[in-house]
Amino acid sequence: MNDEKISDFASSTRIRLARNFDGYAFPSMLDRKMSLEIVRKVLAAIGGLDDMTTYYMSDISKDDAIRLIENHLISPDLVKNRQGGAAIINAEEFISIMINEEDHLREQCIVPGLDLKGALSTMSEIDEYLSKSLKFAYDEKLGYLTACPTNLGTGLRASVMLFLPALSITNRIKAVDSALTQSPMTMRGIYGEGSKAEGYMYQISNEKTLGLSEDEILDMTETTVENLINLEAEARADIKKSLSAVKIKDQCMRSFGVATNCALVSSSEFDDLCTNIKIGAVLGYIDISDISKIDELCVKMKASNINAAAGRQLSEEERDAYRAEQGAKKLLSMIY
Amino acid sequence: MNDEKISDFASSTRIRLARNFDGYAFPSMLDRKMSLEIVRKVLAAIGGLDDMTTYYMSDISKDDAIRLIENHLISPDLVKNRQGGAAIINAEEFISIMINEEDHLREQCIVPGLDLKGALSTMSEIDEYLSKSLKFAYDEKLGYLTACPTNLGTGLRASVMLFLPALSITNRIKAVDSALTQSPMTMRGIYGEGSKAEGYMYQISNEKTLGLSEDEILDMTETTVENLINLEAEARADIKKSLSAVKIKDQCMRSFGVATNCALVSSSEFDDLCTNIKIGAVLGYIDISDISKIDELCVKMKASNINAAAGRQLSEEERDAYRAEQGAKKLLSMIY
Q1: What is the per-residue pLDDT across B284-322, written as a single tens digit (0 to 9) for each?
Q2: Of the candidates B246, B247, B261, which has its C-beta nearest A257's C-beta?
């Protein structure tokens, strides 16, 4: 990899392990009683870990549900399992264990930037802790058994969220995507499978979990990410040399101008403005060195997080005003 | 008048005196020889005054012509009289004497804010100086004779440029305008007769010049201006109390944000942004105390003035970049 700043490209790294219990049907086939038995078992096993909060989908508030989805800690599918779904999340909200989603357990760790080994090590520690008291379904030949065969084997999905605006703007992203379909890696939009990439964010992850060791999956993912970062760096350099550079610079600057000078701004407009600000930052047109702070800000400025911060359900206009004021303050603090 | 700050309403005051020579046809009927004779006479009479520059329409550069029109020092009609048109303009460019426009002389003085008496006094001094050596066509009963009967009498047109955004936004301007048509006063858009008001700027002037003394014309103009300022102040207060206040504030702030954060901006977009910034300033949403500085900036940022400042004909993109950079710098210096 060249000497580009990784944080200009890799927003976050996620490690996910799929685990299931021996002797229980997969969640989609479980009745309420059996589902709750699994929840109880996991909670008992996790007991010794500090600062974990349990959310039961049977009584989660709408605000909490939206907030946890928006923060990528639970999936919309988990929320739908109102009878037996649950999630255990640590205080700093980088570890989440979903119970009775597609599998009995979906253990997930998200860390900023590119850190596949770090995230896997954190996740494995918890997985090993749970394994001491829980017996997971494991086949000597197939590895960990999962509800969907795509997760069979290590049960490991390693994914990295990449910011690839230049590959998108230069229309090279399609070629990259079709090259990836020939590999064991896949590229997806920000909210998971099938959705269109928003804000030029693409999730790169291993499609294959079977027949590979955890280390092989990590190496493969890292190599793909490095290749993509090099291609994106090249595309960014090309844009800066192109005739349209000043127009792109203009658009980025204007977005910063509006985001730091407005009285009302919706969540989706704020996201769009922040995307342009990030482009301006990585192209060197706006003096913000760490774009992950902009990503964090976008999450904080989502409706559910603003309501949580205010401690009550605000009106849409109140939120738009709050976002305009706080967004401007935070963005300005990044450049001064 | 209430205690509103006059500069938030009145942008500039203009006094214009129409004068003609005895024994010459009006300019539209003059041949080249006679036209130039008039120019020579005026130049001889003005000789003793310092720092006056003469522009001959026969050899004025396109850039100078556009710049002087954009700065409201000469009219497009004067430029069309290439054979005999001329203009004498002082160094600070607040006094302009057009020769062979509609009348032989159009003496004009523009001062910032509302200062009818001051502008007339400055203009009269020069007019009296010229009268010492020039014999103007004057009839004991009709007063000064002019090419168009609407200027007969004093030959005096007193006008004040008013910024009336609130009357426009609240749709009250039409009622005001139709009330004025019953009076000896008239309201026009910024570039003179017949044009639509741009940037919410309206020119208020006396339509009648005959049968009134100079003092009466000035009093009448001042009274009308005061009434309009009071109505505008009321409309501004109403807007600030209205439900749409936050949306107007938002628009004003965004315009400031874009004008101070862009890489390219056209002259017409810059004018529109500045209009919104001025609205924000007079409504108290943007901390700029003297909006006349914004008007001055808009004039400076016109293509002709940028070319003049650069000392060469820039390309459109070069000017848009210059305007973006200098405009931002000047606007930011107004608030910090």
Answers
A1: 999 998 898 999 999 999 999 999 899 999 999 999 999
A2: B261
- Distance between CA B117 and CA B140 in Å, rounded? 25
Cβ separation A247–B260 shorter than 8 A: no
Average pLDDT, chain B: 91
CA torsion through residues B264, B265, B267, B268, sign: positive
Any A CB within 8 A of B254 CB: yes
CA nearest to A325 within chain B: B250
Q: Which of A266, A102, A278 is nearest to A192 (CA)?
A: A102
Q: What is the pLDDT of residue A199?
A: 87
Cα A107–Cα A109–Cα A111 angle in degrees, nearest 5: 175
Q: What percent of chain B has pLDDT over 70?
A: 96
Say how far apart CA A216 and CA A237 lie, in whole Å. Answer: 32
What does the pLDDT read at residue B336?
66
A199 sits in the region (left: phi over 0; alpha: psi -120 to 50; else beta) called left
Structural contact between residues B151 and B137, judged by C-beta atoms closer than 8 angstroms: no
pLDDT number for residue A191: 46
pLDDT score at B2:
47
Chain A residue numbers touching B279 (CB-CB < 8 A): none
Round to whole Å and give the CA distance between B178 and B291.
Answer: 28
Write the single-letter amino acid at A178.
S
Amino acid present at B223: T
The string of DSSP codes covering B119-163 is: HHHHHHHHHHHHHHH--B-EETTTEE--SSGGG-BS-EEEEEEEE
**Residue A1 and residue A226 in contact, taking contact as beta carbons nearer than 8 Å:** yes
Q: How confident is the model at residue B197 (pLDDT cuts 50, 70, 90)?
A: low
The answer to whether the beta carbons of residues A43 and A197 sit under 8 Å apart is no
Average pLDDT over every residue of A290-312:
92
Tell me the CB-side half-sphere exposure of residue A49, using CA atoms within 13 A.
21
Euclidean distance between CA atoms A75 and A195, whole angstroms: 14
Q: What is the pLDDT of residues A27-46, one digit of tens each?
A: 888 888 999 999 999 999 99
Contact A252, A311 (CB under 8 A): no
* B263 close contact with A: CB closer than 8 A: yes
CB contact under 8 A, B250 and A262: yes
Question: Helix A245-259 vs helix A267-282: angle between axes, to the nearest 10 degrees?
Answer: 130
- Between CA A36 and CA A38 the distance in angstroms is 5
Span B149-171, pLDDT tens digits: 888 889 999 999 999 999 999 98
- Report the residue count for chain B: 336
SS (H, E, C) B216-236: HHHHHHHHHHHHHHHHHHHHH
Which of A243, A246, A248, A250 is the best residue to mutate to test the B interface, defined by the most B CB atoms within 10 Å of its own CB?
A250
pLDDT value for A323: 98
Structural contact between residues B188 and B194, judged by C-beta atoms closer than 8 angstroms: yes
Is it the case that residue A49 has pLDDT exceeding 50? Answer: yes
